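Figure caption, in words: inputs first, then the predicted bound structure.
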Amino acid sequence: MPVTAYDLTGRTAFVTGAAGGIGRASAVLLARAGATVHCADHDARRLSETADLVKAAGGSARTHPLDVTDRAALHRAVSSCERLDVLAAIAGIMHSSPVLDTRDEDLDRVLDVNFKGVLYACQEAARVMLARGVPGSIVTMASGAVDSGVPGLLAYGAAKAAVVQLTRILAAELGPHGIRVNAVAPGWIRTPMTDRHDDAVQARTESSMARLSPLGRVGEPEDVAHTVLHLASDASSFTTGQILRPNGGVAMPW
Ligand code: NAI
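Bound structure (NAI present):
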């Protein structure tokens, strides 16, 4: 018997980054909870694999191959939704370089994808929710990088900190319209983004990250997807402007 507060039957969700580790797990879980899921990503091949997984889970999916930095493309995709109850703005890229070596083009690209891409998706989704009078939930993807000064993560951390501020400000502005806005700040999650493409390096990295957690492991995409589902659903109906941290209880040493 499903817990009804998590039931998304009849609701529609739009997920960016749906071809990636966390986005795909979130799209599948939202579909398993009953939502129709619109999946967006610029990786068209992996996006259609996600749609197949959603369908295999008994859900209904539509795909939107697009770049989240393309506001017009996002506008077309989001406004094609007959109704919109949930946005999960998950698309993002990683970049690491010491502050003194950070080039303008890297800074611009990371801020464009990780901040402006989230902003555009939030703006487009909120407009549809407001126009159709549907109380909604917007979930943004921040990172544990906002909680400490991780060496190398200037551009990434600055973009994610901006996402946190966007989340808080939007929550204040949209709350009176019945739209909740919350951020997820995961710890180390095993996805293509954290794949070191070398088994030995991967094992060393994961074991050092796992040692930072009282739970003694790194995260899986499904760990984050369950947080996304919680925030998307009525189970979190009195939660807005918050940052939830599926991070295994890690307190970063930096
Ligand atoms: P991933 O690399 O598996 O997924 C990211 C997805 O975003 C990919 O499918 C990629 O094609 C898509 N994407 C990138 N740029 C895009 C663009 N311009 N337009 C459309 N799609 C684009 O990575 P993962 O781990 O699933 O990351 C998802 C989110 O979670 C990201 O925002 C990331 O910063 C965040 N995150 C991940 C953590 C981790 O340890 N994996 C930790 C903290 C946050």
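The mean pLDDT is 96.
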